Amino acid sequence: MALDIKVTRTTTPKAKPDMDNLGFGKYFTDHMFIMNYTEGKGWHDARIVPYEPIVLDPAAMVFHYGQEMFEGLKAYKTEDGRTLLFRPDKNIERANRTNERICIPTIPKEDFLDAIKAIVKTDEDWIPTNPGTSLYIRPFIIATDPVLGVRPSYTYMFIIILSPVGAYYSEGLNPVKIWIEDDYVRAVRGGVGEAKTGANYVASMKAQVKAHDEGYSQVLWLDGVYRKYIEEVGAMNIFFKINGTIVTPALNGSILPGVTRDSVIQLCKYWGVPVEEKRISIDDIFEAYQNGTLEEVFGTGTAAVISPVGELRWEDRIMPVNGGKIGAFSQKFYDTVTGIQTGKIADEHNWTVEVK
Ligand SMILES: *Cc1c(COP(=O)(O)O)cnc(C)c1O
Does 258 sit in the ligand 1 pocket, CB within 6 Å? Predict the structure, then answer.
């Protein structure tokens, strides 16, 4: 490996959690990766250390102005014991696009991948093997200058933590009910909607709570200007199958470009299923529902891979989808992607990267 990583192993390994009841992001492995950035010196001191709390100055910029980014990808165990990452190059490219948008120094691609591989290798025995489980990888960068003036920080920490996870939604692959939000907005073009940064999440919480109170598990966001065009689900991109065609909102600057989204589009092209990226209004969806051509709706993201939607609620209009059941396309996509991720299906797209 090109990146020189100093490894300090824990002397007190933790007990492993019950692999049948992992939930999402509740347990963390024995180690973490850390690398520092200092203006003038660049990224330095790459190291793997025991997982433990980090010490930061209370004035650290990340606490006040939110200069931070994160990524999310997964490692899987194959039946023959290999460890696979799914499309890590896409996450790394996106990480650096996020970094550029929020004035964080970029990380050389090879170093980023070396860091991921090294920490996953170190905690390889934490990768769960039950169906639907995986090791979630959370790289993130925080601004650490202890200064209250507003400017990009001169110092940063890049950290990677790992969490063995089960199904993202407790409902599993069961369809979720989604609330279409036309009051609050998540992001606007020109803002940070297409960057993977905490700001987009804090902007979404109020509507998320409102949707939960109404009995819906997720919010579907409309655009910030007209509150009319479909954007995404906040931690997932959204797809519709209308009259045999798979459609998803075109990337417009305020939608997060998901790796899973890209995989759906690539698979559609490979399978010869018609697929369109375009501007879609909520009226188009309601019309498709009314004339009986809204066949499937599903969200896509690394955490859940796919999340079928069984009901959409738009103001006082309720649109049940596919009788509240998972659709055939959604199921096929889920089976194919998870099959490739776990090495059960041949990887004809060169999506997996083995950690050796
Ligand atoms: C991470 C994320 C997604 C999904 O992206 P994947 O790369 O498929 O995991 C969608 N929307 C938002 C806002 C996200 O942060």
Answer: yes
Q: Which amino acid is at 106?
A: T
What is the structure's pLDDT at 171?
A: 57
CA distance 207 to 149: 31
CA distance 66 to 194: 16
Distance CA 204, CA 109 (A): 30
Give the Cα separation of 256 and 199 in Å (integer): 13
The verdict on the CB of residue 302 being under 6 Å from ligand 1 is yes
Atom of ligand 1 nearest to the CA of 193: 13
In DSSP notation, 51-96 reads -------TTBHHHHH--EEE--EEEEE-TTS-EEEESHHHHHHHHH
What is the band of 170 on the pLDDT scale with cuts at 50, 70, 90? low
Given a cut of 80, is residue 100 above it in pLDDT?
A: yes
Strand extents, DSSP E, 243-351? 245-249, 275-278, 294-301, 305-314, 317-320
Phi, psi (5° rounding) for residue 176?
A: -105, 160
Longest dimension (CA), the chain: 64
Handedness of CA 95, 71, 343, 269 (dihedral sign): negative
For the cut 60, the answer to whether the pLDDT of residue 1 exceeds it is no
> Alpha carbon of 81 to those of 77, 130, 177, 206, 353: distances in Å?
6, 13, 37, 43, 14
pTM for the model stands at 0.97
Write the single-letter amino acid at 148: L
CB 203 near ligand 1, within 6 Å: no
